[in-house]
TrEMBL record:
A single GO BP: proteolysis
GO molecular function: peptidase activity
Membrane topology of the entry: Multi-pass membrane protein
PANTHER family the record matches: ZINC METALLOPROTEASE MJ0611-RELATED, ZINC METALLOPROTEASE YWHC-RELATED
Lineage: Bacteria, Bacillati, Actinomycetota, Actinomycetes, Kitasatosporales
Originating species: Streptomyces argenteolus
InterPro entries xref list: Metallopeptidase_M50B, Rip2-like
Family as reported in the entry's similarity comment: Belongs to the peptidase M50B family.
Principal subcellular localization: membrane
Compartmental location: Cell membrane
Name of the molecule in the record: Site-2 protease family protein
Length: 270
């Protein structure tokens, strides 16, 4: 087994991540204070930047848990810097999830840190590594919905409230999709260590197509309805109404205003 050499830069937070976090902070401030002339554009920047931050932290959680479980190669790969460009598939982990948010308003699970599983001993450790990422989305959802379930919405501007509601929707959908026990997703990674070697070998060829299969199923209206009913039920339990998430998405898509496609009902709320 080779030794991974550690450099000071292997754990230093990436300027790229700090830049994204700065965009999130500034645009969030602009939404909160109504400073931006185009509130919809500020909401777009805030939610998109916050979503990318959550994707980076999702992958960081996988990497950090793997490091403490025995994979010391994690540091040399740059995964602890929170730099999205260090992931093995930046397209799958960052670009596609952002595009899915823009087009469909759904949290696409990313997932592209290469973990040397052979360095890790113990089935519980393998399961925890897989669970760490979507648990980060769960934590994000709890934080985003905290003002709602704590009844602390007094003084929160409506545009910021709608942005939080939509961001919570993204985190909940990402957590649910990631926890599905489908090959290629984190949910399967949680149960895989407990399956027999024969079953794992039989399932392995299907892993690259698991995510595509899930989204293919979501195109079926009946499946899509059941999925979003479950999402809405969870969000209602956290104090977020379907109207708030819908109008949050409507506000996020600021460009619809140019074509007169924004919902007039949401315009009245805002």
């Amino acid at each position: 087994m080779t030794t991974a050499f550690r450099r000071p830069s292997d754990r230093r937070v990436s300027p790229i991540f700090l830049g994204i976090a700065a965009v999130m902070a500034v645009s969030g401030w602009a939404v909160w204070t109504d400073f931006a002339e185009q509130t919809g554009f500020a909401v777009f920047l805030f939610v998109t930047a916050a979503w990318i931050v959550s994707l980076c932290l999702h992958e960081y959680a996988h990497a950090r848990t793997a490091l403490h479980s025995g994979d010391i190669s994690i540091e040399a790969k740059g995964y602890l810097t929170l730099n999205p460009l260090k992931y093995t598939h930046a397209l799958l982990s960052i670009v596609l999830p952002v595009l899915f948010v823009i087009m469909g308003g759904i949290g696409l699970p990313g997932g592209a840190v290469y973990i040397e599983r052979g360095r890790i001993r113990g089935r519980w450790k393998h399961s925890l590594i897989s669970a760490a990422g979507p648990l980060t989305n769960v934590l994000f959802a709890v934080v985003c919905t905290a003002p709602f379930w704590l009844g602390a919405l007094d003084g929160v501007p409506i545009s910021f409230r709608l942005a939080l509601a939509f961001l919570a929707l993204l985190q909940v959908t990402a957590a649910i999709l990631n926890f599905l026990p489908v090959p290629g997703l984190d949910g399967y990674g949680v149960i895989e260590p407990w399956l027999s070697y024969r079953i794992r070998r039989q399932v392995e060829p299907f892993a690259p197509f698991g995510l595509l299969a899930v989204f293919g199923l979501l195109w079926i209206p009946e499946v899509n309805g059941v999925f979003f009913d479950a999402v809405d039920a969870l969000l209602r339990g956290l104090g977020v109404s379907e109207v708030e998430t819908y109008c949050g998405l409507d506000t996020y898509r600021f460009w619809q205003e140019w074509f007169g496609d924004q919902d007039p009902g949401c315009a009245l709320i805002r």
